[in-house]
Amino acid sequence: MSAYAALSQAGYRAYTRDRTTLFFTFAFPLIFLVVFGLIFHGQTVEESGKPYINYIAPGVLSWGVGNAAVFGVGFVLMQWRRDDILRLIRMTPTPVSAVLASRYVLALGIGAVQAVLFVAVALLPSFGLELDGRWPLALPVLVLGITAFLALGVIVGSYARTPEAVAAVANCLMIPMAFLSGSFFPLDAMPGWMQSLSRVLPLRYLNDGVSGALTGDGSLKDIGVACAVLAGFALVLGAVALKTFRWSDKS
Question: Which residues contact 155 (CB under 8 A, 6 or more apart)?
Answer without folding.
Answer: 237, 240, 241, 244
